[in-house]
Amino acid sequence: MGIFNRHSSKSAGLEPGALVHIGERKTERTRITVIDFDQTNYEEREVQVAAECSTYAGKPTITWVNVDGLHDVDTIAKVGACFGAHHLVLEDIVDTNQRPKLDYEREKYLFIVLKMLQYDEAEDDVLVEQVSLLLSHNSVVSFQEQKLEGDVFDPLRKRLRIQEGRLRRAGADYLAYSLMDAVVDGYFAVLEHLGERVETLEEDLVQNVSPNTLHRLHSLKRQLLVLRKAIWPLREVISALQRGDSPLIAPETMIYLRDLHDHVIQVIDTLETLRDMASGMLDIYLSSVSNRLNEVMKVLTIIATIFIPLTFIVGIYGMNFQHMPELPWKWGYAMVWAVMLAVTITMLTYFRRRRWL
Amino acid sequence: MGIFNRHSSKSAGLEPGALVHIGERKTERTRITVIDFDQTNYEEREVQVAAECSTYAGKPTITWVNVDGLHDVDTIAKVGACFGAHHLVLEDIVDTNQRPKLDYEREKYLFIVLKMLQYDEAEDDVLVEQVSLLLSHNSVVSFQEQKLEGDVFDPLRKRLRIQEGRLRRAGADYLAYSLMDAVVDGYFAVLEHLGERVETLEEDLVQNVSPNTLHRLHSLKRQLLVLRKAIWPLREVISALQRGDSPLIAPETMIYLRDLHDHVIQVIDTLETLRDMASGMLDIYLSSVSNRLNEVMKVLTIIATIFIPLTFIVGIYGMNFQHMPELPWKWGYAMVWAVMLAVTITMLTYFRRRRWL
Amino acid sequence: MGIFNRHSSKSAGLEPGALVHIGERKTERTRITVIDFDQTNYEEREVQVAAECSTYAGKPTITWVNVDGLHDVDTIAKVGACFGAHHLVLEDIVDTNQRPKLDYEREKYLFIVLKMLQYDEAEDDVLVEQVSLLLSHNSVVSFQEQKLEGDVFDPLRKRLRIQEGRLRRAGADYLAYSLMDAVVDGYFAVLEHLGERVETLEEDLVQNVSPNTLHRLHSLKRQLLVLRKAIWPLREVISALQRGDSPLIAPETMIYLRDLHDHVIQVIDTLETLRDMASGMLDIYLSSVSNRLNEVMKVLTIIATIFIPLTFIVGIYGMNFQHMPELPWKWGYAMVWAVMLAVTITMLTYFRRRRWL
Amino acid sequence: MGIFNRHSSKSAGLEPGALVHIGERKTERTRITVIDFDQTNYEEREVQVAAECSTYAGKPTITWVNVDGLHDVDTIAKVGACFGAHHLVLEDIVDTNQRPKLDYEREKYLFIVLKMLQYDEAEDDVLVEQVSLLLSHNSVVSFQEQKLEGDVFDPLRKRLRIQEGRLRRAGADYLAYSLMDAVVDGYFAVLEHLGERVETLEEDLVQNVSPNTLHRLHSLKRQLLVLRKAIWPLREVISALQRGDSPLIAPETMIYLRDLHDHVIQVIDTLETLRDMASGMLDIYLSSVSNRLNEVMKVLTIIATIFIPLTFIVGIYGMNFQHMPELPWKWGYAMVWAVMLAVTITMLTYFRRRRWL
Amino acid sequence: MGIFNRHSSKSAGLEPGALVHIGERKTERTRITVIDFDQTNYEEREVQVAAECSTYAGKPTITWVNVDGLHDVDTIAKVGACFGAHHLVLEDIVDTNQRPKLDYEREKYLFIVLKMLQYDEAEDDVLVEQVSLLLSHNSVVSFQEQKLEGDVFDPLRKRLRIQEGRLRRAGADYLAYSLMDAVVDGYFAVLEHLGERVETLEEDLVQNVSPNTLHRLHSLKRQLLVLRKAIWPLREVISALQRGDSPLIAPETMIYLRDLHDHVIQVIDTLETLRDMASGMLDIYLSSVSNRLNEVMKVLTIIATIFIPLTFIVGIYGMNFQHMPELPWKWGYAMVWAVMLAVTITMLTYFRRRRWL
Fold first, then answer.
1. Closest Cα of chain C to D156: distance in Å?
2. Which chain C residues touch B217 with a CB distance below 8 Å?
3. Alpha-carbon span D161 to C66, nearest angstrom
4. What is the least distance, in Å, from the CA of E329 to any CA of chain A?
5. Which domains does chain D show, CATH number per domain?
6. Burial (CB count <10 Å: 0-12, 13-18, 19+), residue C81
7. Per-position b or e across D237-263, b if 16+ CB within 10 A of its CB
8. Bridge partners (DSSP) listed for residue E236
9. Which pLDDT score is estimated for A286?
10. CA angle in degrees (0–180, nearest 5) for C306-C312-C316
11. Do A323 and B333 make contact, defined as CB atoms within 8 angstroms?
């Protein structure tokens, strides 16, 4: 989950609008599937040649074209062309460093970029994949990098196939909404994992702090940073969709967009709470480290301040002066022990009064 | 008081609007009570079958339906249906992770989600419960999780029964306002408890700091975080109610909403002050820990810097060289004591000058 | 100067608008004084029965009713009734936890809550008292808790009595403005005291840091927090007064309100500067503590690293082996001293190079 | 450069608008100079009696009246009266705690308060002086405290005298702009000095940190705070000048105000950058202190952990037991040295592995 | 990469609009190249005399004048004069401390200042160069300091020469956009370098912290600060270009400006993420230092607390009392060893229980 993909600058100097795939190549070949439906008919097939899409572009049925894999810029360009996408839109589709955004050519299409998230439990990392949607009058084209396991859109396909649900009755705008909703639903799962990590970390902070705790905390904070970058701008995108009186979005769909907006706000809210908690934990960590240092120092001080004077005392009577009056005394040795005991007791009392023991 | 309920993502992949209860199951069975009144009549009873509600939906009297327990989604759906609630509204009612929000279907109903708070003195924790209100022309439906002890709406019921008060004369909008007001009044009690904890903590910081103090401070900060999440959005909700010229809210009720708005601002203000104080306390804590370390180090340093040289001196005359001129001296031993005394006094003077003693 | 008064929640559950005095009882009995004047006449007297106020309500002269003490809610209610105050306004008057606010019933009255501040030099604390103003067509009613020493409105009374000043010629709105101006002028005195404390603290930080410094700093920050809570909302209140085209405020008074607004901004500005300075001081404090620790550690290290090796050396020749070639040497003892001197010089050179000495 | 002048509250309780000079008295006597000019004529003289100003007030030529020294409130009042200034404006002129502000009486005058800054190299401090401008139809009155060395308006006077420049052709608004521009130009010089101090401090942080560094950093931060207070509000003032369609400002002057606005933004930008850098430096300082402590501790630890065990070993053979088998050994002494050498090498290896050496 | 160029104040006191070059002199002589083209013709040449520009000013073809080097203010003034630039615009061109800004004279020209960035790998520093664009009806004049290696506009020249691209067909506004786009593309490269440095630093923080790490982190933060200053205001500039309905910008160009705006937002987003990461790293650094101190202290404490008591014990039997019962014991010496072994084991057990080992 890097901050940006290498060579994000490789298009520098090219003509604005030159198509360059920026990002990791995640799949072998670009796969195009078309689902064409209305309330009574349903057709689903894989298309070999990008240009075939154009046969669907003019039909009155709702068409959903899904493109997996973005490295084959020619194919992307051809698919885009079928649906009238501007060259700059195509450039955005293949640049996986895009932040969530909304673009449009009035009366023609709406173009939405958003980020799909998945929690990789093996690596304890969050995977990010860019999804672009191109909504025209009666079609939706979705572009995925196909980096994540499992296709988050599969449940939607199932609902399209078997159900006599709203998805089959409503227009392309509702389909686009459903795709966005599926992506946003995925955020909750990711946040839940991160929430669990936050709680595990908090318990560790109370019980057994180690330098490792710090690095886990740091990696958590970094992931929250990346999530933030991926999710925050989406709020604006959906607000803009609601405000903008695009003729491509039916009034009936508005209530769903409002619901989606609420979900995004809820996600952001939780994200910010997690960030606040993570910040608080760093303070706790530093305090714990300070406390430990204090404790270590106390042990050292107690030992040293008791034994250093005692060692001095025994050192005195280790001197070899010929005239030391105490040495021949019968009870000299016992007396030294008595003095040392007194010193020790005094010290311990002092420590106890200072609450160091 | 977790950040979110487990399985908040369990609805992911379902059709938007599918009814899934998200949250802890807090009560055995869903209980529906209906209070139907106007200025002269008053009827209060428990309803067994959700569909019975519909008999009240058309009456000219004011009807207050209260539903306790949200796990039984079918019942919720039926009650909602009686009052014309959209499917997405029902979904919000049973998802206890909602943040406070306002939704509406113009001319039909206003839908308000808010958070009820209660201080659990046994656990020193803040309990959060979601309350949803559905205000239609002459009815209010309230949905509670019924997790908290005591029903915060009981005083309202009493006022409805015995008093010839404003509540019986005014419309459903005033009833809805009274319910919200009851919830917001509960916030003050919670803040007062937290304020007391802040003050106890402050005294502890001055008198006896312990690692435990840190964890209490941390838990306090976390509770303030949760409160913030529960209360902040309510301000927007009430502002929207005031701005929005819904026909469901009578102009006479506006002044009450303004008062409610002031109360929420006051709550937020106090909350932010508590947060600021809690932040300040962390600094104090860290400083106290530093001060203690300093003190410990000073004791160690004083002991060590006095006795280490002395031990060295006695070590010298413990050497077994055959030719040590001082050893046979008559006053050698006394001289060593004199030297040691001089060293000690020098050191103590030095420490005093440095204000370490 | 607590964050809120105890039992701020005691009204929870009551009908909204129920009159409950929230706050400390600061005076024995509620005292009502009436000043009634126009350009030629002046009458000042204490009223025994609250209802007497109504005789002034209808007169063409300007009437200023001042109420000291808020615990007697009945009297407050009666005075309020004379001037047509809404029940919610009365509730705000007796709740001393109000934040500064503006409320109004168009054409009838403006209701303003603000906070009077006084620096208690004996306790080094800031006292806060709530003042409410009810401005109607030709009367002003002011409500005070009467907790502070001296009445901040006395100079105003004097100006009303003796001067042929603007106050006697202008309307009730100018009187209300003058009352607010007197309150805001009091803020400058409080800030000046706090500014002096900030400067004293800064000097102490440079010269003699002690744990006590930290607590003084903490108490200062807390007082600034309380001030902030009392003063910030006032800006909004006065802005709203300026914006709102209330018929109760004459256009000639506007320039005075703008001046008052500037004063409040100036107060806020200074307050924020003091807050910034106080924050900066905490950093200085922590740094000073660190520096002291460093210094202590250096002394310890210098002493220990010089004497520990020396003690080791003398320890060697304290061993009782029968075959130790150095012991019988004539210059053995001198040689040991030479070695020890060499060690000491080496160490001191090392410390000097490291700038520890 | 205090946060506010003593006795800033001395006007409390007076009638709003009472003239009291607040601030240090910086000059012996109030000096009034008048420059009266149009494209062909130029007159410059010092006026003894304030009332003389009125002779210029009605003339068609452009008049610039400059008043140095603010303590003589009567003179100020008379000068103000000539140009129709409101009493509140006069009050602002003599209160040197004003923040930059814009006030106006439509069609009559614009009143601008701003802060002149000068870097005092001897004291390494920033001096602040308040300048007020009163722009009427064809006159500008400027009020200075005359605290700074050199008059920042002298170059303007020269340009007025010798040049056939724009200043002589344009109106009073352009003159007022030029005065403000001269003040803002002075900010760059101050920021440059502070920028140099920031850089010197940064070098010191890398090379030789001392407690003194901290106090220099603190004083720098405080000066930046004062600058901020003096400069930030000016942005608003100039924006308001641009927005407000005052008839006193000719459309041709607008482009100059836009340029001035850009300069102020640039100043603020640099100021904020310096503040960010100063904040960053505190972190560096604290880290440096920590690093030094670490280093000190390492030296102590290395010395102690090597010699304490050795001292123990030699202590063993200093015991006086009659039966110690090693003592009579021939190679006992050599053996002890061997053991000690081994211990030392082990320790050093350990330290090297931990990268302490 | 200083915060500002020396002598940024050297224009203080001059007439507003006086032309003074502020900044480093980066090139020997000012070089002016002119490219004049339309869809069919293309002319590119270097102009010796600034006044020659005027021959192009009136032509219907698109003219791009590029000026390298800003120190020769006369030449700049002449070039500016050809295209009708206001004196204040010229002043901005030669002042390299400008922040990105947009200025305009309606119907005549748009004036844009922006900052070109380049990463200097040798010095690990970011170089900043000011670029000003003056867009009139059918010409663009660009001014560069010519400090950076390589000309970022070269690819544009190539596209102009060889391609039958959009650049030749579109107007001067598209050319200006392309120049800005080239500059913004350069930002990505710089951010990528900084991103790599962030990652290298993060690895170092985990593996081998050194005081040097701190200084690298500090220098990184400072560079991010400078970038911020250079890039943030550009967003406003482009927004203003989009909003402002200048007749100089064709509606077809708007979509490109929107794309450019998105790129700038993306740059800012990444920049802020890097800043957040750098802040986080300081915390990690401080924690690492604390951890190391802790570790050092533990080693010292373990060694000291084991050996100090042992040294005391052997000290006892080094005393020379004549009556010490243990000394003549046969197993005395062995017994002492036993006691010492017991003490050591006790200590080690204690340390293990505290997890110090």
1. 31
2. none
3. 62
4. 16
5. 31-287 (3.30.460.20), 317-353 (no CATH)
6. middle
7. bbebbeeeebebbeeebebbbbbbbbb
8. none
9. 82
10. 150
11. yes
- Specify the 3-state DSSP secondary structure of C84: coil
Q: Is B4 helix (H, G, I), strand (E, B) or coil?
A: coil
CA angle D208, B290, D298 (to 5 degrees): 50
In the beta sheet, which residues pair with residue D37? Answer: D42, D62
The CA radius of gyration of chain D, in Å to the nearest whole number, is 34
CB contact under 8 A, A214 and E293: no
Map tokens 């209490």 to a residue: B216
Least confident of B11-20, B125-134, D147-156, E23-32: B11-20
Among the listed residues B44, B1, B22, the one whose alpha carbon sits nearest the alpha carbon of residue B148: B1
Residue B270 is nearest to which of C4, C315, C329, comparing CB atoms?
A: C4
Q: Does D182 touch chain E (CB under 8 A)?
A: yes
Chain segment D40-58, per-residue pLDDT in tens: 888 888 888 877 878 877 7
Measured torsion, CA atoms of residues B271, B274, B275, B279, in degrees rounded to the nearest 10? 180
Say if strands E125-136 and E101-105 run parallel, antiparallel, or are unpaired. unpaired
Chain E positions in Cβ-Cβ contact with residue D200 (cut-off 8 Å): none
Map E8-41 to HEC letters. Answer: CCCCCCCCCCCCCCECCCCCCCCEEEEEEECCCC
Residue B190: both structure tokens together: 């919670």
What residues are paired with C134 via a beta bridge? C111, C141
Report the residue from C208, C292, C315 with minimal CB separation from B315. C315
CB neighbours of C16 closer than 8 A, spacing ≥ 6? B177, B178, B181, B256, B259, C88
Q: Are strands C62-68 and C139-144 parallel, antiparallel or unpaired?
A: parallel
Each residue's pLDDT tens digit in chain B (357 positions)? 445 554 444 454 555 556 778 877 666 778 899 999 988 888 888 888 877 778 887 788 999 999 998 888 888 999 988 888 888 899 899 988 888 999 888 778 999 999 999 998 888 889 999 999 999 988 999 999 876 777 788 888 888 887 677 888 888 999 999 999 999 999 998 999 999 999 889 888 877 777 788 888 888 998 999 899 999 999 999 999 998 778 899 988 998 999 999 999 999 999 999 998 888 888 888 888 888 888 888 888 899 999 999 999 999 999 999 888 889 998 999 999 999 999 999 999 998 988 877
- A357 at E interface, C-beta within 8 A: no
Whether residue B294 lies within 8 A of chain A, CB to CB, comes out as no
Q: How far is B243 from chain A (nearest CA, A)?
A: 18
A149: number of Cβ within 10 Å: 9
Q: Which residue of D has its CA nearest to C159?
A: D15
A253 interface with E at CB cutoff 8 Å: no
Rounded distance, CA D199 to CA D274, Å? 10
> Does the beta carbon of A214 lie under 8 angstroms from any beta carbon of chain E?
yes
Residues of chain C positioned with their CB less than 8 A from the CB of B256: 16, 88
Q: What are phi and psi of B31, to 5 degrees?
A: -115, 130
C-alpha E311/C-alpha E307 separation (Å) is 6
Rounded CA-CA distance C140/C111 in Å is 10
Class of residue D127 by CB neighbours under 10 A (exposed 0-12, middle 13-18, buried 19+): middle
Q: Name the most confidently modeled range: C202-216, D7-21, D288-302.
A: D288-302
Which amino acid is present at A252? Answer: E
Describe chain A by its helix, strand, coil percentages, rounded to 5: 55, 15, 30
Minimal Cβ distance to A16: which of E259, E309, E322:
E259
Contact between D303 and C304 (Cβ < 8 Å): yes
CB D12 within 8 A of CB C188: yes
Q: Cβ contact (<8 Å) for E324 and A304?
A: no
Residue B245 backbone dihedrals phi, psi, to 5 degrees: -90, 60
